[in-house]
Amino acid sequence: MEILYQRGKASAAEVRDSMEDAPSYSAVRAMLSVLEDKGHVKHAMAGLAYVYTPVVTGAKAKRSAVKHLLDTFFSDSPEQVVAALLDVSSRSLTRAELDRMADMIEQAKREGK
Predict the structure, then answer these.
(1) What is the number of domains present in the chain?
(2) Residue 36 Cα distances to 44, 47, 51, angstroms
(3) Claim to verify: residue 44 and residue 71 sit in the same structural domain
(4) How far apart are CA 113 and CA 102, in angstroms?
(5) Are 64 and 95 in a shared domain?
């Protein structure tokens, strides 16, 4: 999906060529087919190739993925997610990033979220 979001559209061969340690062409086609069955992508014919485009916006996909992560691993607790993120990335977060995160939290408090 990341490749399709970056490119806007791509054939299975283009998706595979954009991947590091890419699986077989057949595996990429199968993955795109599953994504299409789930309604995440659609295809159109371009010559003899299927060209895939995302159906869901990147922002909506991110929200859905975070919601799934939250429900599956963190008992629907945003606090646990933030704690895990800080634990994993605390060594690499800059002071400016931490300040921006604190600003987001303060804004959410003001808005009553």
Answers:
(1) 2
(2) 12, 19, 12
(3) no
(4) 14
(5) yes
φ/ψ of residue 91, rounded to 5: -75, -20
Based on the domain organization, do 50 and 62 belong to the same domain? no
Classify residue 55 by burial, with Cβ atoms within 10 Å: 0-12, 13-18, 19+.
middle
Residue 61 tokens read as 């996909």
* Token digits of residue 55: 């159906």
The answer to whether residues 7 and 48 belong to one domain is yes
The closest alpha carbon to 98, from 110, 112, 113, 85, belongs to 85
41: how many CB neighbours lie within 10 A of its CB?
22
pTM value > 0.85: no
CA 17/CA 47 separation, integer angstroms: 19
For residue range 22-37, what is the model confidence (pLDDT) as tens digits? 999 999 999 999 999 9
Are 39 and 64 members of one domain?
A: no
Let me know whether 40 and 64 are in one domain.
Answer: no
**For the chain, counts of helices (H) and of strands (E):** 6, 3
